[in-house]
Specification:
This protein is mostly helical and about 270 residues long. It is built from ten helices and no strands. Helix 1 packs antiparallel against helix 2, helix 2 crosses helix 3 and helix 3 packs across helix 8.
């Protein structure tokens, strides 16, 4: 059990460090399928692991000046406003419909990420105009009304999905920042990790204050996730971006498949 927790945690941490997402999407299926936790026990472990890993990645990004911390805080603020609405909506529709909606989002993100990887690999990169542009003099965002609306919209939708679906939103933040900003891939990953750390950290703190217990195997998973994050950040800049985009797209498709199986054909999953 311990070795399984360590292996799965290292894998989830590596995914988070390389892509800036994947923790919230893949951690719960990994804990349920790999360790045998139930969904109630798996959720706080997954959130704590995502928080620990994301905090380490974001701290490294802050030290290197790659995290757009003002943008991250703004998105978290808007997400905090819309998250309660998402929680309310989650109680108004059937779980099966939520699973279908979530799967549709995952499919869109995966297909779009794969297509972007093909363009990045075959096309010559050209300067493009986006709603949020870095000022070449200061190296920071030019906070135009268009940029405010764009980042606010990303944060609001992320909060809505977090409330409805119980995920951190990194799988959505990363492709949206790729589309609507001119940040480098490393800056996008680290900014996404900062958002995940704030969102997941506040949620898991509420759980722990309400006497939520974390099983011993969960602590091994959390520690391994943090270690996987640290190790993956050491060589993330050496991995071609189109490889990361394709790997992320495949992981999102895997998450979609696991979600659909769990919702509509749970007897096909090898739950312990």
């Amino acid at each position: 059990m311990i070795w399984t927790s360590l292996l799965l945690g290292l894998s989830i941490g590596a995914v988070m460090g390389l892509t800036g997402a994947g923790g919230g999407i893949l951690a719960i299926p990994a804990l349920v399928l790999g360790i045998g936790l139930d969904m109630v026990s798996a959720k706080p472990v997954a959130l704590l692991a995502a928080t620990a890993g994301a905090m380490l990645g974001a701290a490294d990004g802050l030290r290197r000046g790659l995290v757009r911390y003002k943008a991250a805080l703004f998105m978290v603020l808007l997400g905090a406003i819309t998250s309660p609405l998402g929680q309310w909506l989650a109680h108004q529709v059937a779980p099966e419909l939520l699973a279908i909606l979530f799967s549709g989002i995952l499919l869109f993100v995966a297909v779009r990420g794969w297509r972007q990887s093909l363009r990045a690999h075959t096309a010559v990169l050209v300067e493009r105009s986006t709603p949020c542009m870095l000022n070449p003099v200061t190296g920071k965002f030019s906070w135009t009304p268009r940029c405010f609306l764009t980042l606010g919209g990303i944060g609001a939708v992320t909060g809505l999905m977090t409330g409805m679906l119980g995920v951190g939103g990194g799988f959505f933040i990363v492709p949206m920042l790729q589309r609507f900003t001119n940040l480098t891939h490393q800056s996008i990953v680290l900014t996404s990790l900062a958002v995940i750390a704030l969102v997941s950290g506040s949620t898991v703190l509420q759980m722990l204050l309400h006497d939520t217990r974390i099983l011993p195997s969960g602590w091994w998973f959390v520690g391994a996730t943090a270690l996987g994050m640290v190790v993956s950040r050491l060589f993330a800049h050496k991995v071609p971006q189109h490889w990361l985009q394709r790997g992320f797209a495949l992981l999102v498709l895997l998450a979609m498949l696991l979600l659909l199986l769990k919702t509509f054909a749970p007897h096909w999953l090898p739950l312990a």
